[in-house]
Amino acid sequence: MAKILVTGGCGFIGSHLVDKLIGKGHQVVVVDNLSTGKKENLNPKAKFYRIDIQDPKISQIFKKEKPETIFHFAAQIDVRKSVENPIGSARVDILGSLNLLENSKKQGVKKIIFASSGGAIYGETDIIPTPENHPEKPQSPYGVEKLAIEKYLNFYKKIHGLDYVTLRFANIYGPRQNSKGEGGVVAIFTDKLLHNQTPTIYGSGNQTRDFLFVEDTVDAALKSLAYGGLSSVNSLPIYNVGTGIETSVNELYKLLTEETGKDIKPKYAPAKKGEQLRSCLDSSKIKKSLNWQPKYSLVEGLRETISWFRKNQNS
């Protein structure tokens, strides 16, 4: 079994990934600054370092632990925050990632699996569901940052032989998602409804997203671990990971009110800058190459999520 380092391993997606990796017998090292991650999400069998990915001292962790593979899931993930403070966002996402890549090169890491964003990278598209070869036109600094890291990964592969897989995730939701701050819309709405508060929908609510349950997200990441590299010279190891189903925010809200049993009308507010109108991913490439399929329908995933929020309402 491999020694694996997970950045953001106390976060929403990262902690689910750590649990699965440990369940499969891997030795797991977690790096997280706990800015949005939570210590209670940490698997007790993982070795934990509280450190920012920008910190030069991370080199000591690489030297000591000598990981074979890195799952890079740490990021400043708030699109709105990236619009308000593009320099601060880029420091975390771009310079922090470069710090990891440089240390990976020096310490002989074999592979990096990177959590990118299928929503933010493409921007508004004329093809829905959107395939990987669609031109990237990010509308937010966050999307620009994710795209920049993808380009850096390709550089490190070509020049330094560092293997990688990029996963362009759809809108992920599920248990442990933070309903405060940078939380996704499912977590925010669920938390508000269960506390009998009125959620706010920004814009008309007709904007669409491709909602992907966290279990399916982690399954794609695990399949990438076994993936042996580029399938051909012309095919970059970049994969969309989504359901291919468009759901509007209004439709999502209706499902959540039905599943929570709450009859609360939302309030509407002006749309936020940098947020796109439609986002839905064509995942046929990963289905073919890595034999990945989403297993959860939106309703099934929402039920699991609501159940978790009910149990953890006060946390």
What does this structure look like?
- With 315 residues, the protein is α/β, with parallel strands linked by helices.
- It folds into two domains: 3-169 and 213-241, 3-Layer(aba) Sandwich (Rossmann fold); 173-210 and 243-281 and 296-311, UDP-galactose 4-epimerase, domain 1, CATH 3.90.25.
- The chain has eleven helices and 13 strands.
- The radius of gyration is 19 Å and the shape is globular.
- The two termini are 34 Å apart.
| Biggest sheet: strand arrangement | 3-2-1-4-5-6-11
The CATH homologous superfamily of the largest domain: NAD(P)-binding Rossmann-like Domain
Rg over CA atoms: 19 Å
* Largest sheet data: 7 strands, parallel
Q: How do the helices and strands follow one another from N- to C-terminus?
A: EHEEHEHHEHHEEHEEEHEEHEHH
Model regions low in confidence, pLDDT < 50 over at least 5 residues:
none
Domain tally: 2
Q: How is the CATH topology of the largest domain named?
A: Rossmann fold
| Helicity level | 40-55%
- Known CATH architecture of the largest domain: 3-Layer(aba) Sandwich
The number of distinct β-strands equals 13
N→C terminal distance:
34 Å
CATH class of the largest domain: Alpha Beta
Tally of DSSP helical segments:
11
Keywords summarizing the entry:
315 residues; globular; seven-stranded parallel sheet; 2 domains; UDP-galactose 4-epimerase, domain 1; 41% helix; single chain; Rossmann fold; alpha/beta
